[in-house]
Amino acid sequence: MRGGGVRALSAVARGVTGASSSPGARSRWPVTRSTTANPGAYLSSTRTPQASGCGSASSSARALYSTQRETKSETPPSFAFAFDIDGVLLHVAKPIPGAAKTLRYLQDHNIPFILLTNGGGKLEAERVKDLSSKLGVHLTTENFVQSHTPFRQLVEGGDGEENSLRDKTILVTGADAAKCRDIAESYGFKNVITPADILFAHPSVFPFDPLLESVYASTHRALPKPIYAPGGGRSLTNSLKIDAMFVFNDPRDWALDIQVIADLLLSHAGYLGTYSSKNADPSLPACGWQQDGQPPLYFSNADLFWSTGFHLPRFGQGAFQAAVAGVWRRITGGHELQRRAIGKPYGETYRFAELVLGAHRHEILRTQGYHEPPGTLRSVYMVGDNPESDIAGANEYASEVGTEWCSVLVRTGVWSPERGGQEVLKGRLEPKVVVDDVEAAVRWALEREGWKM
Ligand SMILES: [Mg+2]
């Protein structure tokens, strides 16, 4: 079902926006919805007054759940939470103290929340099952958004089916490209190929073969059409055409992936094996680079580094993106790679999260017997550990329905006064408040909302 209150945003299907645009810029993604809730119906309803401005965290050390006061509210909460996972709920797969009981408290009191992570590479259902097991809290995919989850919007396209990628051919890659294919197919993409498919069908695409048998042979599928070869007697329309490229999570084999992506960025209209006659034409915009119907390139996560079990941060998908852009600059003599990046801190991901959260909240209210829209979702508290993604994203996101996104930084993850320091928390990276952990974050927000604990 397509959301009635969501604008048609077809520009994304043309894939023309560079990742250099402001992360908080309004989304230009087409949006469709798979739930039965109608965001336009209740998100546009009467707004309730804003709470007073964000202040500093309460110095009270009392526990969130220490009181026995009745928490039943006459009206449902007009606020909700968005939690990052790594560094907020988990640290290297282990629950952070207070995280589980905090989520249970919110569930018990019908206060909506979503989990919003830049992680990916697994089916949402698998990830949620794993997370539920680690935290000991029952969670569902209904309120879960990982880095590539917004890609599912592109199955339907924008307002018109002409932008739908459902039946188009897309290339996906990631840490485990075969797994990424499974995820893409679960979203509804019907024709998904991986670099392994291309390499297996045409080994000379990448003339370094040690991994061909040991890695790629086991995961490849037959290409839907052969790769174009000049003089081969095959017409273009009977050759493989890629309509979009998706980086689902952090690729392992950068060399093969960059080669295939560059081939398609240089092609005529996505026909692998062709070379656009517009490339390097100085009479054309951008000297003709990416001006010939090449497939748009999507990245799901801009994080340059991420925190792992090693004592120093490791490269994330942002490093791969930088590598692709660097090679592209060398190929084109300095032109910037046109690509689309989502994930935190980009506004597209926050807008998608807001829709998911709105639908989840709607469902909670419905099960409580609120059949009429009770009011706008007034505030969302984004609780995260990373100023560059969680905090900057919440600060810069401009909700189209007027929802306030209030950034709350915790000390249990990548940032701490010792690592990063207070001085970096300025401008777009300045949270509304800094607290010790997720439990303190929720306590601060509930106090701010006047919620009786
Ligand atoms: Mg984190």
TrEMBL record:
Chain segments carrying region Disordered: 13-58
Residue ranges, compositional bias (Polar residues): 32-50
Coiled-coil annotated residue ranges, if any: none
GO CC annotation terms, alphabetical: mitochondrion
SUPFAM superfamilies (alphabetical): HAD-like (SSF56784)
GO biological process: glycerophospholipid biosynthetic process
Swiss-Prot/TrEMBL keywords: Hydrolase
Segments passing through the bilayer: none
Keyword Hydrolase in annotation: yes
One term of GO molecular function: hydrolase activity
Domain of life per record: Eukaryota
NCBIfam families on file: CECR5, HAD-SF-IIA
PANTHER family from the UniProt entry: CDP-DIACYLGLYCEROL--GLYCEROL-3-PHOSPHATE 3-PHOSPHATIDYLTRANSFERASE-RELATED (PTHR14269), SUPERFAMILY HYDROLASE, PUTATIVE (AFU_ORTHOLOGUE AFUA_2G02580)-RELATED (PTHR14269:SF57)
Protein name (database record): HAD-superfamily hydrolase
Taxonomy of the source species: Eukaryota, Fungi, Dikarya, Ascomycota, Pezizomycotina
